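User: Now give one protein:

AI:
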Amino acid sequence: MTEWTVDQVDQPQLWEIILGRMREAVLSGQLPAGSRLVERDLAARFGTSRGPIRDAIRELAREGLAVETPRRGTVVSTLTARDLTEVYLVRESLEAGACRAIIRGAATDEIQRLSAHLDAFDDAWSRGASFVEAAEHDVAFHRALVSLTGNRRLIAVYEQMLNTTVLLLRTAAEASSGLRVEIEPWVHRAILDALLARDADRVQAAVAEHYRVAEDRLFGLAGEAA
């Protein structure tokens, strides 16, 4: 019998741990849009050298959560209507492909479990939760939907788009206190119902309608926040 060689399991590198904490701070609003990311200050905060900080900031920029500016250095991104247009176009395309794969390969009970996220969304809405809190369940629904494909590359690219979306939603919420009344919960149910019916044409139309509604709700607000 051939000897089985097993490589050691890699542990997360320091910069990856720092990246995760910085990403969480950006998405939670602890590091708001426009905040400067100064290597020296962050190294002191994390108790490390500037190398891992530099790597973490570089990855944040690659994900679209930070941007280098001529005068201020690297700052947390202030996203605009153009960013929103690009992110939503990518998300719509990825979800359309994901839904086709789900119709072909996902079990009905797996699809039905997506409803739990929509129930949580409706519950948050009915008890007067903030827009950002309700939107967490919106994001969770889309993340779970794409995860049903089991396609690791698709999931990784989509996760990057979701992170940018969370920052966009927080920016929009800060720009308009009336944003809450403009959410349309039914657009998610239409996607779920079409998936359960295994109706490819209907699900493509539902995904397209979801992003049309999302654009109508958020595009102007993102432009105002820019």
Confidence is low (pLDDT under 50) at residues 222-226. The first strand starts at residue 66 and ends at 69.
